[in-house]
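Troubleshooting log. The previous structure file for this entry was overwritten by mistake, so regenerating from the original sequence record. Sequence copied from the archived sheet and checked twice against the printout by T.R.
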Amino acid sequence: MTLTRRALLATAAAFTALPAFAEQPRWFSETGPAIGGYDPVAYFDENGPVKGSEEFTSEYDGGVFHFANALNKAAFDEDPATYAPQYGGYCAYAVSRGYTASTDPEAWSIHEGKLYLNFSKSVRALWATNKRGNIEAADKNWPSVLTAS
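Regenerated output below.
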């Protein structure tokens, strides 16, 4: 995907307009379970977002996760750190820049065995232009961005 200068500027403008919130939860969720109720294992095993069910639920590191089936729940329960999204499921690009932003379940990628979510597909493309550098910056900012003012 090629990003136009206009798309990059619009994305940058959208992020600079986002307010910072103090004391954000550890796991991104607009309401309800972590990562909007999407099954984190499905990103690995089904190559994309699949909505989880309340029937298959696990708790991990203060978050409640839903799964599409018992097999995905069992895989997560066995090794949650492998499947849980990085940076609490907040936008990986935003965290690399020192703040948090919501995520679109369709704007995801797996890099070196880890799941990263982004605000939008255009932000995911921007993040992907320097994955290693963005991950290093986000690692330094996480989790302090949750209490940034």
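The beta strands are 53-60, 63-67, 104-111, 114-118. Archived copy saved in two places this time.
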